[in-house]
Amino acid sequence: MAIAMTEPRKTKVLLYGLGAIGGFYAFILSRDSSVELSVVARSNLEVVKKNVNLFPDLLKSLLMKFAVLSCPHKIATTYDYIICAHKAISPGLDPNDFRSVANMDITFVILQNGVGNEEPFRNAFPYCSIVSCVIWVGATQDSPGVIRHTASEHTDIGLYPNPRIDATVEETRLEGFAAMLRAGGTPYTISDDIQVKRWEKVVWNDTQQWLSSSKESVSVTKRLMREVIGVARRSGVALEYGLVDILMERIQGMPGIESSMQVDAREGRRLEVDVILGTPMRKARECGMDVPTLATVYALTVAVDMRIKQALGGLG
């Protein structure tokens, strides 16, 4: 008598945002045969539907086999993982928009720059797990739906611990996402304290190469780094001031590059001000800290972002 064999249940993943970073991770996840992937593409939805070759330098013949949707409200299913790879601009995505596709067992994965990104999701879904990620991936969306990937490629991942959930369950969910990255062939590291990694990346984002092109700007860059590290330390994150020399050496050894904010400003897109500069500024104020360099860079960046907002007709 023949025994019917059933296929293993696939892990259902929803990826929100299909820009440069979202497109990169969509490719990685599409390599995992155990994943059933859906993506939400917003501004570039129609282009993505027509242009399946998202990585012309890398994926000459890959057809990405996933459902492309315009918003979570149009989805009639729930997922195991919801991966947020959209820009963290303000006002941004309301986590409550995922109510129709999330249940108590959902795990959110935050693939964004900045600090404090997890808090809105924890407030909206207090009984869900959150995997927080720090991305070191060189990817640029040269035009809608066409993404260029450079050599840089690494992801730091870790839990944003939820005391309401058993630690073993949380570790299993973290390992589940790590398994997807392994299957996709991209390097990653699991961090016991991902907030240290997030703040290190914020120090990097706050002081990228455009601030270190002359002797005068180098001294400003170092002051800004020390101020942000000081805010992190007062916030309970164990950053060391030696990070300044490490990052300065990295910056000065790199060829000329544009930061993500520079690219966004050039393309007339809103900037990720709040999570990269705004949260450190807010925490400095809460701690009563004097951070003149951070305050100046924050004010100037807000001004640029407001100009872009006005050019967009007041829209995000």
List its traits:
alpha/beta; 316 residues; Rossmann fold; single chain; N-(1-d-carboxylethyl)-l-norvaline Dehydrogenase, domain 2; 2 domains; globular
How would you portray this structure in words?
The protein is an alpha/beta fold. It is built from ten helices and eight strands. It has helices spanning 20-30, 45-50, 119-124, 167-184, 194-206, 215-234, 243-252, 260-266, 273-286, 292-311; strands at residues 11-16, 35-40, 67-69, 81-84, 107-111, 129-143, 146-159, 188-190. It has an eight-stranded mixed β-sheet. The longest helix is centred in the last third of the chain and has 20 residues, at 215-234. The N and C termini lie far apart (62 Å). Mean pLDDT is 83; it is low at 52-65. One of its GO terms (molecular function) is 2-dehydropantoate 2-reductase activity. Residues 198-301 form the Ketopantoate reductase C-terminal domain. Its EC number is 1.1.1.169.
Produce the secondary structure layout.
Layout: E1 11-16, H1 20-30, E2 35-40, H2 45-50, E3 67-69, E4 81-84, E5 107-111, H3 119-124, E6 129-143, E7 146-159, H4 167-184, E8 188-190, H5 194-206, H6 215-234, H7 243-252, H8 260-266, H9 273-286, H10 292-311
Parallel strand pairs: 1-2, 1-4, 2-3, 4-5, 5-6, 7-8
Antiparallel strand pairs: 6-7
Catalytic activity: (R)-pantoate + NADP(+) = 2-dehydropantoate + NADPH + H(+)
Protein name: 2-dehydropantoate 2-reductase
Organism: Aureobasidium pullulans
